[in-house]
Amino acid sequence: MYTQGLDSLGKESLHVASTDTTALEARFQGKIDADEKIEPKDWMPDAYRHTLLRQISQHAHSEIVGMLPEGNWITRAPSLRRKAVLIAKVQDEGGHGMYLYSAAETLGLSRDQMLQQLIAGTAKYSSIFNYPTPTWADVGAIGWLVDGAAIMNQIPICRCSYGPYARAMVRICKEESFHQRQGFEIMMTLARGTPAQKEMAQAALNRWWWPSVMMFGPNDAESKHTAQSIKWKIKRFTNDELRQHFIDVTVPQAEFLGLKVPDPDLKWDAATEHYTFGTIDWTEFQNVLKGNGPCNRERLETRRRAYEDGQWVRDAALAHAQKHKQREAKAA
Amino acid sequence: MSDHPEWPLFEVFIRSRQGLEHKHVGSIHAADSRMAIEHARDVYTRRQEGISIWVVRSSEVTASDPADADALFEPARDKVYRHPTFYPIPPEVKNL
Question: Interface pTM (ipTM) of the complex?
Fold first, then answer.
């Protein structure tokens, strides 16, 4: 049950002070080690709750902000078919945000609080969405690379120890592969088109390659949360493992398209059966993360305006519902 | 913003096809139950995942406490005779 988990967090959590916390923690870790799921009302360490809240709300915000760069092209999609597909994709992203907010709410934060954290800039979202989409090819590159990287990140989360998050991820992953394929199809059409179209596809790959590679987060040595998250089975693979996997599967796809991955150091290592790749420019990543990317301000401003402009609609719908309820009560 | 109350939360149950039971899929915010059905349609059935939707206000759900699970479900634990495998039947007896 979803909200019930918020309102009353279960007796165990109320008596933590008087019972043996270490014993509760040991039992909790025992359940996780035995691959049992944790559900909303089960006892959980505060740090587990906070880690999940941070991760799930951040994930939800990313889906919502992620609607903006692609939404930019809905009115200018090159055909009715492309337009219908793009609308469906952007609508899916909105839906994914809803699944995730719904899962995060079970941990004790209301939807409204989360939205306000996003607008206030105190909650993060994936910094990939702070890059602009200047051409139609960017829509293709986002589907192929950004959604491709997201899938790689998300499939292991389907087995996350927290039940509501894992279930939301199963739903999301089922829908995500259409996103990646439609993006690849756009890239394929452009890559097989006129020289100008192929050039446009290459330019989009050049823009999105490194930001996509950085989507997996800092190198393992720099990632302070990884070890604990893996112990809690929130995370199943490290950032570097996922990044390597992404590069290994994506480079042949670029080759198929006849496009060049913008990394002069990229080469196949027959011994390890992996690609080796160039050094990542983390200063740029940190800079975008700090709010200085090309679109940070614009994205937040758009979300803030949507929230504020929608306030009268939410108020009116609620007033309407209350009026109807009163009328029904009178008639009865 | 706190002077604007949030839309209430509804739990959503979906019957995926005729002959199957409604199953809990998640939750949704809406001003009333009619709007909750429409929002649930948009969020949970974009790919024909359902033919029927139930919505219930989350505040109306009473749930058992996992901390009480031992006591609550204990009575069934020692009643193995409720299962057919409890009764040894000679192999020559058929259709039983």
Answer: 0.88
